[in-house]
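Objective 1.3, modelling of assemblies. Example input:
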Amino acid sequence: MSALIADHLLSWMIAVPFLGMVAIALVRERTAVLSATLATTLINAGFALYLWTNFDYVETGMQFVERVDWMPTFGIQYAVGIDGISLLLVLLTTFLPPLCVLGSWESITTRLKAFMMLILLVEGAMMVVFTALDAFLFFMLWEVTMIPMYFMIVLWGGPDRVAAGLKYVIYSLAGSLLLLIGILGLSLQAGTFDIAMLAEHAYSPQSQSWIFLALFLGFAIKLPMLPFHTWLPDAHSEAPTAGSVLLAGVLLKMGGYGFVRFCLPIFPEVAHNVAPVVLWVSVTGILYGGYMALAQNDLKRLVAYSSVSHMGFVTLGIFSFNNEGIEGAILQMVTHGLTTGAMFLIVGQLYDRTHSRSMADYGGLHQRMPRFVAILSLFAVASFGLPATSNFIGEFLILVGVSYENFIFVVLAMGGIVLGAAYMLWMLQRVALGQPRTEAARNLKDLDFREMLTVTPLAVAVIFVGVYPGPMLEAMDASVTYVVTQLASVP
Amino acid sequence: MSIYTLIPLLPLAAAFVLAIFGRRLQGAGHRLVVPAVAISFFVSVAAFFDVSANGAREIELYRFLDVGGLTVDLGFYLDQLTVLVLLLVTGVGTIVQVYSSRYMIGDRRHSRFFGLTALFTAAMTMLVMSSNLLMTFIFWEVMGICSYLLISHYGERPSAASAATKVFLVNSVADLGLFVGVILTFRTFGTLNIPEILELAQAGGDIPAHIVTLLTLCLFSGAVGKSAQMPAHVWLPFAMEAPTPVSALIHAATMVNAGPFLLVRLSPVIVLSPTAMTVIATVGAATALFAALVSLTQTDIKRTLAYSTISQLGFMTMLCGVGAFVAAIFHLIAHGFFKAFMFLSTGNVLAATHRHFETTEKAPPRAMGSLFAGAFILSVVPPLVIFSGAYQHLWLSQSFAPASVVLWIVGLGTVFFTAMSIFDSISSVFNDGPPGAGDDKPRVVPSLLSPQHIFGIAVASIVLIGIMLSVWRWFVAFLSPAVGGTVSAATPGFSAWLLVPVAVAAAGWAVAYIRRNRPHAHGAAPWRKRLYVFLLNKGYFDEIYDVFIVRPTLGFANWAWRTIDQGIVDRLVVSLGSMSIGIARQLAHVDRLVDHIVVSVGSVSTGIARRLGYLDRAVDQRVVSVGTGSVRTARWLGKFVDTAGINKTVEGLGRGVEASGHAARRYEPRTLQHNLLVIVFWLIAALGFFYWIAR
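Predicted structure (tokens):
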């Protein structure tokens, strides 16, 4: 690869989606728009693989760094770079959009061009969020991700789309407001927006807990943590398939990424102080999300509540402050992106056929749709963390990590896994097994080639990570160890 | 990489191919799976000879996890225990696959069935060979999901669909314990490598007693689930919804054997905790006896077999609990082969009987007679096979002497009832006419008292006892390096104790036989009259059996089945499920309620704001009225600045908010303000709380 690309790889990966937006603005035909978007996302996925192969596993600091002064008066830079943690999330961010495009190939009938542009906009903005080394850049693109998602929900969503969109925006705005306060609080004292330098500054003791709190709540709303989760089921269930996939697959991960990137390295003492509360809230979230999911009749809502449960695992791992926990949490974020993204894709494929998300309208699908049921079963069991699938690795590591804190968390969190098995299998029983309950369910066609193509990469990834998680863990090991040693240096 | 990796890899590869090309290979799955499993069996035989010649060996595969202090290397650990169980798994697996290649002809989901059974077998071999506890757990669960998918093979039947879910859920609750146990093991020993754990445990070390007890009980909880011990035994009868070969696989080769295997595998750890051992023995004994009793009341032959499996598993568990690990494995292997045969011949018998009923043929086909004889011998053989070795050992385990007497009695009871129920169920297939046919004539004469049969059985028994005794001696010597505790390799000569279980088994069979024949005793056939006279001579026994043993036994068993199994245990699981759903619904209400409260707080504050607006206006009016008596400037000020300016601004603001509220309300039922307020409410609450904490 030529030096021009290789030296500015991250900038290219950020630019490609935006260039793609321009490109599809110029074409008119439907297939041309779709294939141009697909090509753009695939190019970025290719770049991501190149990035992965050239990534140095031993290096603890940032790699592929690029810095340009942007607003020198305020010390704001365009600075991007990745470490192992970013790498995994960048891989996830580039992996899902091609599948989103494939998944909405036929289901999006109106304003197709706009929809595809929004997908690319999300991808581009997420790329910046996960690679930014400058807090201002981070915040700005964090805000940008909200907008395309709002329009996706409001313009292409389900029956209650306006309400869901509003709820989403309001929660997100509240979160980013707090985040803004937090970031300003940091940089006003430290006099810089560089994230690495922010972590080195010694903040005044009385301001520490306030700034931590603002950042924490900003991330917690995005993740979402327990009391702030109510936007999620609405937004997920009303969004179009691609929107749900991006929302659950990538956008939620910004919260967890923020914890690891900001909260832990900058305020280790405060993090230690609040950890017990966060752990208890996480465990409550795991169980609560599980119970909620058990009560759902709507397929997408079930998956959405299961996300609440899974995100509880993420915070549980992050706030156990050890390698096992944090690596497990990051892996859990990635694998949750795979399985939940896949769940939304496959539920979307069902929705495309019948326009119903209610489990009561299905039943007996395995007679007419064996391939669909096979794929659905795979992701359902992967979602509750069946061993030998990807989510198990993350959950296992998180549980090992949190066992150093208190064993009670292990036992309680496992209750969430059993609940997960219960709601997923019950869902399978009602949707896939038995006899069809409606005429529509009796005359369904099995997945076609395109639909199989959409979910197969995810299936392969889920199994591969499940049986061979080594590369993923190795990639982030050095970076996480660095974070953990910083945390451990606190008295 | 060693050749032995082929043992799990071949079935796994077959499953993989069928998963991808299943549709194209429809109807040809067995051509792939049968050779794969058969070759695995031959490789297992090679492994057996290798290990018996060269001792245990470890094969490393790859590094699975390396995070912080946690390192997990996947690999295989082949020792005496592993190769013996491997022979069982792949041997029975091959037989079952061959059988099902006929049985499943024309099935709609042919490829799915063979793919899953191959995966099932592969998972069991992986579990057996695993050198790492995490790997054991992984394949433990993979087996669980395979069983789920196989039980839902006829998923269009609602009973199969719900049975599959129940089976998996009962197992997953029990597996929680195992999962906790795995993590606890890591935290206790600092490693998950099985050979290392065993070494550490044998070295003793300074592990606190309560930790070991907890650890062992956690691991045992997994065994309780997979091996259908009380109170998790309810799943095994449900598993009968699967096609019959799957039952053979579950009962004989895979799945249920995992429990005793795990206990024996980790026996050096288990023996460290006498408390846990006692619990294990008690659960095993209770299960053994209970299941044997329940199996008496069952009329469905497959269900009888299920309960008999539970009972036998309980026995194995009990043996583990009293430290007779070698005997447990002996029992496991013997039972595996025996049960596979039972299931497969049951499948044949049921098919044959079914055909027979359809053709309304009067005379029973010859094949059925021989099948019956075979099945009958088998019903007597297992106690022989099983207890020749086991009892010797049980009796010799001195350390648990007082407990072992109780367990002895329980064990003998189990033998008795098992013999009875097996006889009962098999003879009922032949003896009774088709349901509703109305004739009480036996369809097939159970000519068991004919001299040939008695002679044959006696000879077979004696030969078997002889074989067992010699095999047992070799078996103890072979297996003892692989198990923990003090294995008394005392040479078991022919002892009188051996006759006790045999006699009890025979008694059980006799009771069942008498009970079955008594109602027909007034029947027509001359041999029956002879039999009647013959029985009359021993009639007292008959009466005594009937009044003191059979009826109370049946009554109790019936009661136990209805009240405890169905009424309490089953309902408990179901009600736990429905309770969870209920709680979930209630919580959903609470969720909504919180929403409502926040909304009402919002509307109250809007109300207050409106009231304040009125107040403002009232104050205004007073100001204005005061102003009228005042100078013009004041009037002008009052009129233009206050009323028109501020008031209008306030009012305008209010109207604006209201208007936007209405506008938002038009778009959505739960208004904008409400959402804002929800957030503000939570944020304020959280801010206060966190500040308090973070301070």
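The radius of gyration of chain B is 35 Å.
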